[in-house]
Predict the structure.
Amino acid sequence: MRRPSDKFHLMSVFHTVVQTGAFNKAAEQMDMKPSSVSKAISQLEQLLDAKLLYRTTRNLSLTDIGNYYYDQCSHILKDVVTLEDTIGALQNEPSGTLRITAPTAFGQYFLGPRLSIFLEKYPNINIDLDLTEKLRDITKEGYDLAIRSSESLPDSSLFAMKLIAQKRVLVASPHYLEQYGQPRTPDDLSKHLTLVYSAMTQSQRWSMSNKTDQHHVSITPRLKTNSYYTLRDAARSGLGIANLNDYMVVDDIKSGRLVPILPGYAQSQRDRFAVYQQKRDLSPKLDAFLTFLAKALRQ
């Protein structure tokens, strides 16, 4: 009775013979004698009770059964290599440089404050964080991870994990509202001082809806800038109403520094995804970061 390991060896020899096209080349690649390769093929054919190869002094060709067996061997051997790589990766401590690209605001407000916690937990991992509004090609440019919105998801060759449903919220300081009053409807916004993020399309038009109506409000900004930090600080100082992502102002709302405006009206949300090019179980550093990120989002 043959051991399973013998079958795997015979399969590997057959696969190499077909790939190289010659017994002597397969023998050289596998560090075997040509006679041992020939014997292995004969043993495999005997084991399967099927002819796999037509052999002449000058040429090798596959039988129909041999062609089918070769195709199946290719899948099996690839799966075995992947399995071995996975086991090896799981045994390794997360280490190395993790290259991440993310939108500037998300990186500054969400990732930045949490990186020190992650790096303290994993001392053998280094972070290379690129904050940009450009859509990086993570495969060509060598990034391990990209933060993307639902409007720019990659093709199916990449993996994606949903992070958050990003919402926008109108906010102003209590001091501003004491001076100018609380807007009651979206149309009231045109009479207020507004603070606008200039990098957004239609930055001078805010859209929102309640259960019954859709509103599109044109505004004239008191302050227009491509810095979310500047907008938040201006809103805190009472300069006007700002339209910011919810994660940027959650602490300000809890502390009372900023007050939500028109809470009965919702703006369209954008889902944020973590996008990566390899299975996370093959990269301990990537798996560690994604696990950390998912936990941070639940807190």
Summary: The chain has a mean pLDDT of 87.
